[in-house]
Specification:
single chain
Length: 219
């Protein structure tokens, strides 16, 4: 169990790092990828010119994050299963489904971009339709996995709060960002509220990861 707790702490920090990297890229080098006003041809020209960087961006944000998130879900389950078995099981189930959706998004986006670039060279009209379809699918999946992530963070924070497994401030913060994320994902008009969860998850992962590593060092 000690090795899993250490792995979970490291995984939490790496998961946070993948989000920080993704956010850093989308507000700098890859800013046009998030610009909804960009014309289709300009978008494709940018995508083709930055194909490798875009691939690495998605690979980090989805596939690397998903791997380490899986380890973290299992590590937190091990930490909670004795003191709060029911909440630990239910929360971990949502957490593992979340990771599956994260992997799914990554595969669809990366393989979808490859198909999009290939199709663009043959038929720009069909390529634009494919781009719109990919965006619709990934938005739907990303909203679903955010909902699942909110449920996981909320349930494990509640379990940890009841049994004092993590510091009280961590648990209150986890419950707060979970509530904001759930509101934002369930009510499309309030989608901007859900961003609180995305940013807050970085802080929560870092806090939990550092705590788990320090706790293991003491024990």
């Amino acid at each position: 169990m000690k090795n899993l707790q250490k792995a979970g702490g490291v995984s939490a920090i790496i998961a946070a790092a993948t989000y920080l990297l993704a956010m850093g890229l989308v507000v700098s080098r890859l800013k046009p990828m998030a610009d909804s006003t960009l014309g289709f041809q300009e978008y494709m020209a940018f995508l083709i010119a930055n194909k490798l960087l875009v691939f690495l961006w998605h690979f980090s944000m989805y596939l690397i994050n998903g791997f380490f998130l899986t380890v973290l879900v299992l590590a937190i389950y091990e930490r909670l299963k004795d003191s709060s078995p029911r909440l630990a099981k239910i929360g971990s189930a949502f957490g593992l489904i979340w990771t599956a959706f994260v992997f799914l998004s990554g595969m669809i986006v990366n393989y979808g971009n490859e198909s999009l670039i290939a199709l663009y060279g043959r038929n720009q009209g069909q390529a634009e339709a494919l781009k719109n379809a990919l965006e619709t699918i990934t938005i739907g999946i990303d909203s679903s996995d955010k909902y699942l992530g909110c449920l996981w963070v909320g349930l494990v924070s509640l379990a940890a709060f009841k049994n004092k497994v993590f510091p009280k401030t961590f648990n209150v913060f986890g419950l707060a960002i979970s509530a904001a994320g759930l509101i934002g994902t369930m009510i499309p008009a309030l989608v901007s509220v859900s961003y609180v969860f995305g940013i807050g998850a970085i802080v929560w992962w870092l806090a939990v990861g550092i705590y788990m590593l320090r706790k293991q060092a003491i024990e």
